[in-house]
């Protein structure tokens, strides 16, 4: 039971005692207790500042979600348990987009910690349950910090993204890393640019954004280049990273 659930030995022993040594019932009891007691404990105790964690990115045709989850140590951030929580978070945000009623053809929603925690995954399981389960396994502070959810209802808008250092979870079709960028773009209908080339250029632009951290795209008409090239914050005036 301990190997299967990740709970402490004494906790597993109590679960078995409460359920006549029935492992399935004990596992269910553990999940119920962790959701009821564990979340209360987490929500009432002050959480110190957490600085490690991951950025997760999931793109599915007309929808894209990028989320940030923090923890205490880099070691925990790279565990399968933590990565699974990222997958559950991204899926829960995608599910929210499925039911969202948008008036415009292009929409983006920023979600804070409380808004994300109130979501459910595709199986109807509250994301809070996944967070509590992760907390009980890794024994570290976990903060689902924020997420941006974008949806396009037109065929001419496409998405591309990048995380660094990029790692992929093929089971749930998302990528994750320490940094991330996502780009929405249109292909000029009068050009002969292929979708493949547009995706390649878009991913290189995302790599550039991660590397040089521009604060805005910028405008030739309204912005001036910074005299110190190393401090340039407008994307259009920065030297393209892949030209170096």
TrEMBL record:
Example of a GO MF term: translation elongation factor activity
**Tree of life domain:** Eukaryota
Translation elongation factor EFTs/EF1B dimerisation domain segment(s): 65-218
Q: One GO CC annotation, please?
A: mitochondrion
The keyword Zinc-finger appears for this protein: no
Enumerate the Gene3D superfamilies for this protein.
DNA helicase RuvA subunit, C-terminal domain, Elongation factor Ts, dimerisation domain
Q: What is this protein called?
A: Translation elongation factor EFTs/EF1B dimerisation domain-containing protein
Highest classification ranks of the organism: Eukaryota, Metazoa, Ecdysozoa, Arthropoda, Hexapoda
């Amino acid at each position: 039971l301990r190997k299967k659930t990740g709970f402490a030995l004494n906790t597993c022993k109590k679960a078995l005692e409460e359920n006549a040594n029935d492992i399935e019932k004990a596992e269910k009891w553990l999940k119920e207790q962790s959701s009821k007691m564990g979340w209360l404990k987490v929500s009432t105790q002050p959480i110190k500042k957490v600085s490690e964690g991951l950025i997760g990115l999931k793109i599915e045709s007309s929808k894209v979600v990028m989320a940030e989850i923090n923890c205490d140590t880099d070691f925990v951030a790279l565990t399968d348990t933590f990565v699974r929580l990222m997958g559950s978070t991204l899926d829960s945000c995608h599910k929210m987009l499925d039911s969202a009623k948008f008036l415009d053809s292009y929409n983006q929603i920023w979600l804070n910690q409380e808004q994300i925690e109130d979501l459910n995954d595709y199986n109807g399981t509250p994301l809070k349950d996944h967070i509590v389960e992760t907390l009980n396994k890794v024994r570290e502070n976990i903060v689902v910090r924020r997420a941006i959810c974008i949806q396009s209802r037109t065929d001419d808008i496409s998405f591309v993204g990048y995380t660094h250092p990029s790692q992929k979870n093929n089971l749930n079709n998302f990528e994750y890393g320490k940094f991330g960028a996502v780009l929405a773009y249109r292909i000029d209908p009068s050009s002969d640019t292929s979708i493949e080339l547009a995706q390649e250029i878009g991913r290189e632009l995302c790599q550039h954004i991660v590397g040089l951290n521009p604060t805005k795209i910028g405008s030739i008409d309204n912005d001036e280049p910074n005299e110190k090239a190393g401090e340039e914050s407008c994307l259009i005036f920065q030297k393209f990273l892949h030209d170096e």
